[in-house]
Amino acid sequence: MHSVAYRLNTLVSFSVLPLALMLAAASFLDGFNSPTVQAHAQIHKIRRFRKQVNGADEVNLSLNISMDMESLFTWNTKQVFVFVTAEYQTPKNSLNQISLWDHIIPDKEHAKFQRVVPNKYPLIDQGSNLRGKNIELVLHWHIMPKSGKMIQDKMSLSTFNLPEAYS
Ligand SMILES: *[C@@H]1O[C@H](CO)[C@@H](O)[C@H](O)[C@H]1NC(C)=O
Ligand SMILES: *[C@@H]1O[C@H](CO)[C@@H](O)[C@H](O)[C@H]1NC(C)=O
């Protein structure tokens, strides 16, 4: 009895150790992969710009997005979560950051694409600050590794001015 339990324990320790070493090596190597992301996004169309009954400005738009995130995929990458935010300043907030669209890239084969997409989430302001507002589009990405820490980064894509009038 005692000897079987002891042997099992030894076996487990032996098989766990190499795995732990491998995973440590995986996240260590990740530190040396300096990825270069290429992405562009522009407003394709302002589909609707209105003031909600509660007074908050709301914009619906479509984006022309292209990105090449292939370099983010190493053998330790599980998936990459990307999202595009609209960022702007108002007298109340130095940074308003509103997610317009998001997407999960499951593997390297799907990491390069160009498409026109409607916003998944409308751009809604806390007040009515959006007429003529200068907006910056920012791409954010979270690299979810098979092991190790999640890595997040972002890049500015473009800026545009919203119309002066509702439509
Ligand atoms: C979207 O942008 C790409 C460049 O990134 C351009 O080649 C393409 O013509 C644009 N598509 C539309 C529908 O504007
Ligand atoms: C804006 O788009 C959202 C979905 O993205 C939709 O639920 C909403 O009804 C749209 N609003 C208008 C005014 O078109």
From TrEMBL:
It holds the Pfam family SPC22. GO terms for biological process: protein targeting to ER; signal peptide processing. Coiled coil: none annotated. One of its GO terms (cellular component) is signal peptidase complex. Keywords: Endoplasmic reticulum, Membrane, Signal, Signal-anchor, Transmembrane, Transmembrane helix. This is Signal peptidase complex subunit 3. Residues 1-26 form the signal peptide. InterPro entries: SPC3. Essential component of the signal peptidase complex (SPC) which catalyzes the cleavage of N-terminal signal sequences from nascent proteins as they are translocated into the lumen of the endoplasmic reticulum. Essential for the SPC catalytic activity, possibly by stabilizing and positioning the active center of the complex close to the lumenal surface. Belongs to the SPCS3 family. It is a single-pass type II membrane protein. Transmembrane segments: none annotated. It is found in: Endoplasmic reticulum membrane.
